[in-house]
Structure prediction request, 126 residues.
Amino acid sequence: MIKEQTNVLTTQQVAARFNELAQQEKWFEIQAEFFADNVKSVDPPGSPYMGYAEGKAAVRKKGEDFVKQITGLHSAYTSEPIVTGNHFAVTREMDITTQLHGRIQINEIMLYEVKDGQIVLEQFFY
Prediction:
């Protein structure tokens, strides 16, 4: 019996591909390519923007709901990732206008946990 070899991406490889897509603002492609079925998405407690979602479909909906609120994108920047162990982090700065909050600036750290080549947690600090 031949055991099938699977090439699981390292955290560094996931972070590099994440960065490639993030620089193109392809956030839903990142979710499709890397998010695990049981992924969790966590915003700060009491966030006026978003909350908590668990599961790939719920996290996708959370992202879609956020994007639907944006009426103007004035600028957006995502830093290169820093990687250690099974985590990587980027900074994200956005100047946007939303339906609910008007024009806002969000400066955040986005932390990702990788397990078996998939993102299992995204957590936002702002």
Remarks:
- The first strand starts at residue 35 and ends at 42.
